[in-house]
Specification:
The chain is built from ten helices and no strands. By secondary structure, it is mainly α.
């Protein structure tokens, strides 16, 4: 298990347990359907394998290769698709990532121009002007990635955009790189999960044919995760990485 995942687990697992209890309590008053479709567990195997290998800290490229191969083997063996459909699906996936790749390249180039002209140093000075210790530095990183996510509506782009700045702040204030990575991850996911113009919210609203605003009151996990992440900074938790 990677150190970053270990730090994240210490922060988000309590939030997940609290949300699970909320769902259980709310589910007590909900009647289950009388019949359920049969689950084809063999088709779930690629997803479980990818999750398991990722949690175990396996290299991301190897995880992706294993997932692609298992998907092809399971899909072809069960008759869900043939070899040509498998390759076609991979092509569609690459095409779907094209926009993200272009934005990432543009964001990286823009950030390097800003850095070259002294903008990064200016941002760090302004953000940390009143910061006296590690706690304030961690909050400045959390605020930075949150603002970036509000502007880009994409947590991956937000992390990539401010990752270099966060690294410089962490070096200046001697922050643990694993805690810094966890802060970037949790706060970007918090903002991404609650903004009504994010891809996830728009997709959910489209499927349910409702307004994204009406979903916000039910977003228990992002809000509770944000509270746990904030408390982790305030109380320097986990202590080993703070």
């Amino acid at each position: 298990m990677s150190d970053k995942f270990r730090v994240n687990s210490m922060i988000v697992v309590p939030a997940a347990i609290i949300v699970l209890c909320i769902y259980i309590l709310q589910g007590l008053s909900v009647s289950a359907p009388s019949t359920n479709d049969t689950v084809e567990w063999i088709k779930v195997l690629p997803y479980l394998t990818v999750l398991g290998t990722a949690i175990a800290g396996v290299n991301v490229m190897l995880v992706l290769i294993i997932g692609i191969l298992m998907t092809g083997i399971v899909g072809i063996s069960t008759g869900s698709f043939n070899v040509f459909d498998w390759f076609g699906t991979m092509g569609s996936g690459i095409t779907g990532m094209g926009e993200l790749i272009i934005i990432t390249l543009l964001a990286g180039g823009m950030l390097e121009i800003i850095r070259y002209n002294g903008g990064i140093d200016f941002i760090i000075r302004k953000l940390t002007a009143r910061v006296k210790g590690k706690r304030g530095a961690e909050f400045s990183i959390a605020a930075l990635v949150s603002i970036a996510n509000l502007c880009t509506a994409n947590n991956t782009i937000a992390i990539i955009t401010v990752g270099g700045i966060a690294k410089d702040i962490s070096i200046k204030f001697h922050l643990d790189r694993r805690k810094t990575a966890s802060i970037l991850d949790t706060f970007s996911c918090l903002i991404q999960g609650v903004i009504p113009y994010g891809a996830q919210m728009l997709m959910a609203a489209g499927l349910a044919s409702i307004s994204p605003i009406s979903i916000i009151q039910y977003l228990y996990y992002p809000f509770i995760m944000g509270i746990c992440a904030t408390l982790a900074i305030l109380f320097r938790y986990p202590r080993k990485y703070s």
